[in-house]
Fold:
Amino acid sequence: MKILNLYCGIGGNRKLWGNEHEVTAVEINPEIAKIYKDFFPNDNIIVGDAHEYLLNHYKEFDFIWSSPPCPTHSRINTLLINGRGLKAKYPDMKLYQEIILLKHYFKGKWVVENVISFYEPLIEPQKIGRHFYWSNFPIKTNGKITQIVENRKGKANLQLKMEKIGIFVDDFHNFQGDKRTLINNCCEPQDGLDILNCALGEIKQKELFSSPKP
Structure:
């Protein structure tokens, strides 16, 4: 199966997918893309704009996973704006552009992931743990999405989350950016696998009912 993994980061959602599928991953940050490539050398990693790549290539895939940037939708960001007087920002509507595009034009299975927003979602999602998921198939997971309440320094809890997802900042070689953000942006690998399996089940069921009878 051909999979498109958009805004792939370091690949938390992809960690348990194995190597039986043809995965194309898109990440705009070259340093982060290098980490992803180190973890998943068999994947085709593209350094570029995931939003534009989706528009130009969505017809080429069987399953698409998209995790657009979440800060402008986050409840935490809103608390910081209201509590600290930071400048407000428009919510990034690329999130809904992708949902609408996939819903109306893409023939395969798709899922768009984001945080629970500070506003009522414009398109109703499925809610699992601290995440919203929009998809064209029902999602069932074990419900064990990482939920860690950070202490003031957050170091112990960062270590706990790294252990939970099985990805460690020591693996990031000479990356000079915010390693905490890389970890916090990771989807729970088990949920990534569960969601992929849900999509595969839907695809196999469709093939079963659409195949000609002997």
Notes: Residues 189-210 form the longest helix (22 residues). Helices lie at 30-39, 50-57, 75-84, 94-105, 155-165, 179-184, 189-210. The chain has a mean pLDDT of 86.
